[in-house]
Amino acid sequence: MYIKNIFLNQVLGEINKEIEGVTKITDPLKVLANADTMKMLGVQRPLLQSTVIVEKTVQDLMNLMHDLSAYSDQFLNMVCVKLQEYKDTCNAAYRSIVQSDEKMVISASWAKDDDITRLLKSLPNWSNMAQPKQLRSKREEEEDFIRTAFGKESEVLIGNLGDKLIPQQEILRDVSDLKALANMHESLEWLSGRVKAAFSNLPFAQTSPAQDAHGKTDLPPVLEQILQTLTDLARSFQEMADSCLLVLHLEVRVHCFHYLIPLAKQGNYAIVANVESMDYDPLVVRLNKDISAVEEAMNASLQQHKFQYIFEGLGHLISCILINGAQYFTRISESGIKKMCRNIFILQQNLTNITMSREADLDFARQYYEMLYNTADEVLNLVVDQGVKYTELEYIYALRLLHRSQTGVGDQTTQNMRLQRLKEIICEQAAIKQATKDKKITTV
Predict the structure, then answer these.
(1) Could you read off the pLDDT of 293-314 as tens digits, one per residue?
(2) Alpha helix locations (H) across 24-71?
(3) Which of 346, 340, 320, 166 is nearest to 257 (CA)?
(4) CB of 29 within 8 A of CB of 240?
(5) H/E run at residue 104
(6) Are 336 and 404 in contact (CB under 8 A)?
(7) What is the pTM of this model?
(8) Residue 391 has pLDDT above 50, yes or no
């Protein structure tokens, strides 16, 4: 009776005190375990102090359960209760970061959207996280496959956002919040694994009890309901960890929209050649600064393959946003084109330093704007001579922008004729491509 009435309550009291010491504080997501603890646990990136303490209490309770096996259900119930409470604490802390005045930031609402989440998790860059970049195959088709995936992602995100200007309150501006999400991701993923490992050896109610080396019963069978609760909790922690990572992945992308959509919609690119035209756009400078700050925080907080997940494909999205932005410029001059190319160059330089890859997608955007040095008719000739590099819509944006920007380009009827000619050229090019493909197949 002593154990049941006094000892169990005493254990619970001590555990509550220990957990509350790390969770009932301001910003529990910003207090990390010290270096010695990390070394002892053998982890590569910082873990939250609260997660480490919660995991320790789980281990302590599991040890007590082995020592006092008659009370195993009570100890396991305590484990379930403490994990559930910690899950609630983490949920509240997560909401405090991604939500203000009942409204979630865009990245979190996207991460909550089943369609977007399903798409992101179906793409190879998500599954590639299990395999660091240097170990992945270097096959050319693999590269194409991943680029197609980036294309899908960019298309969905641009489609979701449209041409909406994103107000500051809908992005996470404080890098320490992003760092907290990264710490939470690593911590909850680690906790999920530890919880699974802790109960993986427990005997099920329908199986024979666990036995020691002498064949004696060590633990009585565990109720299936308790095992199910533990399984659900472990899965919940992993899902929360995934959500944090998706928010980080999406947040960096939302920042790109935040800065680059106003660049085209509100920027003046019909400028004459002067000192101003040689400057980078302040919005691009700020985006670069943002990306660099996020990189620094993520590098310290996330394992390398997850860090790669945050930044890989970002160049593709930026390229898409910039090309898509051509429709919003009122007019663009040669100096404006030059300025855009300079903007693209410093974005590319910054990203290349982060991803250690060429970021060729931004070459694609730069070449698009360089195409605008031509007249509308010259652009059509380029499509004939060089083949179709962009989508029909992207060419339409270019032709319309040239029509708005250049003098002596003819009236709307002339413009419509050009657009019709563009359609014909694209159809012709597609037919030539198909014929060449068929010829190759026949030859083989």
Answers:
(1) 999 999 999 999 999 999 999 9
(2) 35-41, 49-67
(3) 166
(4) no
(5) strand 103-104
(6) no
(7) 0.89
(8) yes
